[in-house]
Amino acid sequence: MHILYLEDSEPDAKLVQQYMNSVRHNFRSVRTIDQAQDYLNKQKPDVFLVDIIIGGNTAHELIAQVAKQRLSKHIVAVTAKALPSERKQYIDLGCDRVLAKPFTIDDLEQTLEVLAQE
Length: 118
Known about the structure:
The chain is an alpha/beta fold. It has helices spanning about 10-25, 35-40, 60-70, 85-95, 105-115, and strands at about 1-5, 25-30, 45-50, 55, 55-60, 75-80, 95-100.
């Protein structure tokens, strides 16, 4: 799978990077919304993992843009704010799944397995 992860927390990004390297996914991590937009304008990942809060801003507009323009096959919101109403908001923006922080590598693996079958 080709996966792009927008995450501004270096420890979180490194943890996911280690997992992705172990399972040999084509993985790229970016830290800013602008970097994600640049990448998505050049390549279309199978999965776009996107942290909802990036540098004090939300990634809502980016998610809506990616969904509308189909810049990624799947979008997964990664967030500490995962109440049912918030989950619905992310799904309404265009996300296929919501991964609640803190998540385990097993949670991530299960999410990717489900998406790979869709």
